Amino acid sequence: MSEPLFRRLALIGIGLIGSSIARVAREKGLAGEIVVSTRSEETLRRAEELGLGDRYCLDAAEAVEDADLVVVCVPVGASGAIARWIGPSLKKGAILTDVGSTKGSVIRQMGEFVPDGVQFIPGHPIAGTEHSGPDAGFAELFRNRWCILTPPADADEAAIAKLTQFWQACGSMVDTMDADHHDLVLAIVSHLPHIIAYNIVGTADDLETVTKSEVIKYSASGFRDFTRLAASDPTMWRDVCLHNKDAILEMLARFSEDLSALQRAIRWGDGDALFNLFTRTRSIRRSIIEAGQDTAVPNFGRDIAEAGE
Amino acid sequence: MSEPLFRRLALIGIGLIGSSIARVAREKGLAGEIVVSTRSEETLRRAEELGLGDRYCLDAAEAVEDADLVVVCVPVGASGAIARWIGPSLKKGAILTDVGSTKGSVIRQMGEFVPDGVQFIPGHPIAGTEHSGPDAGFAELFRNRWCILTPPADADEAAIAKLTQFWQACGSMVDTMDADHHDLVLAIVSHLPHIIAYNIVGTADDLETVTKSEVIKYSASGFRDFTRLAASDPTMWRDVCLHNKDAILEMLARFSEDLSALQRAIRWGDGDALFNLFTRTRSIRRSIIEAGQDTAVPNFGRDIAEAGE
């Protein structure tokens, strides 16, 4: 067996993403030793039961000692506190990265605690499910999905290359871009869809004229698709909303403008405007399927998956 | 083999729903003869190639002659014209139904053309996929899904019972309610989700700062879920918007109000309000899964379906 990419990998946080990294790193032999840390005793015990690491620490500072790669996998609102905690214990020459859904805010929170000689290269694997916690992870989560790195202008090229190699070994394709652009892109492809999904499920839950039981029974007509995103981890998504505010507000404003125009077309019976919009949107789905980012099987193949369970 | 439920079944329109009815009716022996009609020569030829019926007519009036059950499966905007066409040829004692996504408008359009002695019982199977046309149908489409009937107050009980039996034989569970309530329920569980999905895909398509290629590459972070609904048949959805205007505008107004409140919480950093909404919405998904209306497999099981293809 060849030499692992990193002698010691420390995972700070062991939810869906952290535990998926642990699993794939183990499966592919990417680290000589995997150290798992989380602030919850119960979660740490569960990680140990699942055999996700080689060593388990409640103390994040202890976990990162002598680690060559440290991956912070916590809700973005907690990244500043984690950096303050682990900063003094980071080894010279270590690579520090994260998996947060916002990048500008993570850089602002963590940057000041990164000691000289540590390579801080923020990252974001574009992968997930609606489930959370250490049991939800699986080794194939990153396969054929993109991972975005947002290295600072003065980042060490060798460190970027090594982290890129790590994500590729996890099954990902890797892009690099600047943090501001990342935050804008994610606001439209991820943050806005989640916010809209949470919102519509909330609206349906509040109706007096339609019962909750009716919403549930007839949900296969469209509504159920939104409930998957709206079942995502509330802490993670609260933090995303608080930490990518400007880009999200910008996208929300555009969405609402467009929705007003669509509402007007419905009110005034402008069938041509409706037909044109409804035709234009089909091509994006075709492109997503061609790019291997979704399945062409009807209904996301949920009936096939169900039958196979 | 037992006597079929109907001696002759006429399907007017042979898209996703019509062709699924044809397939399941054949598979379960629900009709002695299946007559298929559609106004497009090309589609009719395709239906014949697929062997969906026993007889094929471009003339809808000819197709319904002597039929015991006539199911109109066309976009709701076309139902008035179809009723005018077939009305004089309907057999005394026949049951006339439809599968349209709006019911008040269909009743207003079709009602005046239904001759005395014909039982008109509007219906709506709550099932579908993002695909359309005769090739998209399959016999299992209605299995474990609800079908809503909206019979008029003076409808014949025996006819309602027979149509109920038909849908149950197709695999559905059947509810009856009045047309206005149907239109309100569907506005929230189906029409609003589709409109919102079309809208957000349109918003993403219009951005200058984020490229279309970026939207596609990173779509697995949430966006792709919306593109499925936004790939649905444009004619069908244009007609739904035009024919359930009042209920849709009411639900859109509520949605926008709620979205404004959510936007305000984001702008002012009200983490508690965000967390509360994001927690509340989880329980609806659990209920939908418990009711057998969606899968608990992560990501709708799309990866499993993909691997199985």
The span between the termini of chain A is 35 Å
- Main sheet properties of chain A: 6 strands, parallel
| Strand-pairing-aware structural class of chain A | alpha/beta
- Multimeric state of these chains? homodimer
Whole-number mean pLDDT of chain A:
96
Domain tally of chain A: 2
* CATH fold assignment of the largest domain in chain A: Rossmann fold
What's the count of strands of chain A? 9
Run of helices and strands of chain A:
EHEHEHEHEHEEEHEHHHHHHHH
Q: Please work out how many helical segments of chain A DSSP would assign.
A: 14
Largest contact between protein chains? A-B, 110 and 110 residues
Q: Give Rg of chain A in angstroms.
A: 21 Å
Q: In CATH, what is the homologous superfamily of the largest domain in chain A?
A: NAD(P)-binding Rossmann-like Domain
What is the CATH class designation of the largest domain in chain A?
A: Alpha Beta
Strand order of the largest sheet of chain A: 3-2-1-4-5-6
Based on the coordinates given, report the CATH architecture of the largest domain in chain A: 3-Layer(aba) Sandwich
Beta-strand percent range of chain A: 5-15%
The portion of residues assigned to helices of chain A is 40-55%
